[in-house]
């Protein structure tokens, strides 16, 4: 059996032993992970697994962590892993959030505190505002700690600030819907320019709501929903008027848009001009 697999599968010592099906699943995962790291003895691997158990990691978390970063089995838990775990705990991550973070992004405890972890968290705090908000965002999107995604984040935030979006609004939406900030910078900037050109003032929260609606839709989706509104006799001007006041109107499915429009216009007899101005 490859190094560390017995312990990882919960079959050694006095640790809780999983059912046979669970044991087979964890063994298979451990076998895959162990192929990516060469160990001379099982001693260090067993220490790593024991370290994770002592920090509240259950069998699923352990397998996910080791499968995601097999090289952890070769690291010394007290010298290499504990300082990172302690730092994140002091920063404010609860036990449950720390376990979630490490099992999803195990590379975080292989990186330098001074060169990566601390600067990354400080970078995010500068964008978001407070440590508690940083923790909330990281808890939702653990991948935000990867350098690649930070590189995506910076130019998109710059595009908003260049167009006059207040820092408080940027921070609010990084917390509220962070995913929208990770699209290609060129596409994001295009959307910002289009929304600005619609006449929505950047100081209004609806400015970012409109950007959010547009970045979530492909051109075909946008055009398809536009055509549904047009089918009820609305001009492009009226549709855009509605969008400027209520960007979520383009987030509904085509089926829902059609159903709601039929209800208001055909069943209730509302004039399309009244409906667009009332939204």
TrEMBL record:
<keyword id="KW-0805">Transcription regulation</keyword>
<keyword id="KW-0804">Transcription</keyword>
<feature type="region of interest" description="Disordered">
    <location>
        <begin position="1"/>
        <end position="27"/>
    </location>
</feature>
<keyword id="KW-0809">Transit peptide</keyword>
<dbReference type="InterPro" id="IPR003690">
    <property type="entry name" value="MTERF"/>
</dbReference>
<comment type="similarity">
    <text>Belongs to the mTERF family.</text>
</comment>
<keyword id="KW-0806">Transcription termination</keyword>
<protein>
    <submittedName>
        <fullName>Uncharacterized protein</fullName>
    </submittedName>
</protein>
<dbReference type="GO" id="GO:0006353">
    <property type="term" value="P:DNA-templated transcription termination"/>
</dbReference>
<dbReference type="InterPro" id="IPR038538">
    <property type="entry name" value="MTERF_sf"/>
</dbReference>
<dbReference type="GO" id="GO:0003676">
    <property type="term" value="F:nucleic acid binding"/>
</dbReference>
<feature type="compositionally biased region" description="Polar residues">
    <location>
        <begin position="18"/>
        <end position="27"/>
    </location>
</feature>
<dbReference type="Pfam" id="PF02536">
    <property type="entry name" value="mTERF"/>
</dbReference>
